Amino acid sequence: MRIVLIGAPGSGKGTQAKKLVAKYGVPQISTGDLLRAAVAAQTPLGLEAKAAMDAGQLVSDPIVLGMMEERLNDNDTQKGFILDGFPRNLPQAAALDTILNRMGRPLQSAILINVDFDLLIQRIAGRRTCKSCGQMYNIYTSPPKMDGHCDLCGGTLHHRADDNEDTISNRLRVFEMQTEPMVRHYQIQGKLTSIDGSDEIDRIFARLCKAIEQSTLSNLEIVRLKKTPKSPPSKVETFEKTTKLEQKAKELLNTTETNPEVPPLQSSSGAIKEATTMAVKKKARKNAAKKKVVKKKTTAKKKAVRKKSAKKKAVKKKASKKKVAKKKVVKKKGRKKKSVKKKA
């Protein structure tokens, strides 16, 4: 599991990260711990970070990212890791993606713990931390059994000086402004899961574990689909695709050669679209012209047929008149022959 926990100060992401470490056996990595360890070890990056902090400046992103890359290369992160409070903004998130992709271990899930600002202020103002073991308490929601002392090791509990209401409100505004673009970044990647963090610690943890398991299963399915080889297209499909492409190309070339209004084909998709639309319009005009010609021919043929039928009727009438005239002449000749016989 390779996850990022996102949450405002007081959202409980540190507490939840420790519980995840106990359950899944992967390390929790936070920028605060990295900086303290690097400064204590006096590494080159640790010395640069110490110089910036001593000057009252923020530690730059290149220093933090360098420390993060060194930590992610350690052997205990091979099975996974939990990033607590990092990345804080969009540039850090993009740089982290680059580092993890280069390692061949991309991020699996980014989980946002949502808590109302009023509750966050109460949580931060009442927060107490053990100086010895780092165990966290809250005098309002989860107080220690002995006031001012840790239940685990008996160490003294510490209240940070900047955990006052004015400072907290300012920190929450800065967090919201910086985190919003980063949240959208993970949402676009399909890696963001949001859970309600205003409940009891154990209930929040149950939701968190469910979100992690679901994201892990979905990532395994994506990997399986990527590894499954796609069946190559058949020869018939390949032939049909190539012939269709050739026909389209010929049509586009013909339209550009015959029609001066159409500009010559260019490599850009806009020019190709323009050429295809002109070709379609030209074909539509030709089809419309053909339809008109066909209609004219059919109407002319109908008129010619009507004229021919009228001529046939006239011919029939003439023929009938001639037959009647011939019959009358024949009858008269017969009468003359009879008169000749009588004279003999």
From TrEMBL:
Residues 252-344 are annotated as: Disordered. Keywords: Kinase, Nucleotide-binding, Transferase. The keyword Kinase applies. It is an enzyme of class 2 (transferase). Residues 280-344 have a biased composition (Basic residues). Pfam families: ADK (PF00406), ADK_lid (PF05191). Residues 127-162 form the Adenylate kinase active site lid domain. SUPFAM superfamilies: P-loop containing nucleoside triphosphate hydrolases (SSF52540). GO terms for molecular function: AMP kinase activity; ATP binding. The keyword Transmembrane helix does not apply. Residues 253-270 have a biased composition (Polar residues). Its EC number is 2.7.4.3. NCBIfam families: adk, PRK00279.1-2, PRK00279.1-3, PRK14527.1. This is Adenylate kinase. It comes from hydrothermal vent metagenome.
